[in-house]
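User: Run a structure prediction on this.
Assistant: Running it now.
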Amino acid sequence: MKNMREKILGVATTLFETRGIHASGVDTIIAESGIAKATLYKYFPSKNELIIEYLKEKSNRFYTWINEKLSDTKLESRDVLFQLCDLYEQWITTPHFNGLPFHIGSVEFPDPAHPVHHYSIELSNELQQYLSKLAEIAGVKDAQTLGQQLTIIFEGGALIERLSPGTGAAKRARNAAITLIKVSV
C-alpha cells in the first residue's frame, strides 16, 4: 500500500504548502485524501511524523535534483561550486519554491524541544555538511568555513526571495557566493 502512503503525503504536502502546516489539521488532510482516520494513522502514527516526512521528502527532492545537475561537472574542480551557485539561484526562483524545509519547520514550530524543530535543525546541518563536502572535494583548504558561509548566504537569499519574490535576492546571493568562492579557492 505504498501508493496510499504517497497519496496521503501528497495531499498533506499540497495543504502544507498552500495553507501552512498549523492551518492544515488532521481532519482536513483526511477529508482531502478521502480516507479514514485509521488509514492516516496506519501510515503516519502522528501529525508530527507526517510533517517530518513532508520536510524530509522536500529536502530529498532538492538533493536529488541538485546531484543530477552536478553529475555532469568535474567535482574535483572549483567549477562545481560555481555551478552550485547557478543551480541555487535557479532552484529558489522557480514558481513552485515556497521556502527551505528547515525554515518552514523552525518557523511553524519555534519550540526547540518540539520534534519538528529538532528535525529542522538536522536539515540545516545537513545542508551545511553537504556544501562543506562539495568545497572539500573541490580542493578548498578551509572547506568547513566555506560551507558555513555558503549556507548563510543561501539561506538568507532563499528567505528574502520567498518573502519578496522577483526582487533579485537570489541573484545577489549567487553573486556573493561566487565572490566568496573566488577568494576561498
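The domain at 53-184 is CATH 1.10.357.10 (Tetracycline Repressor; domain 2).
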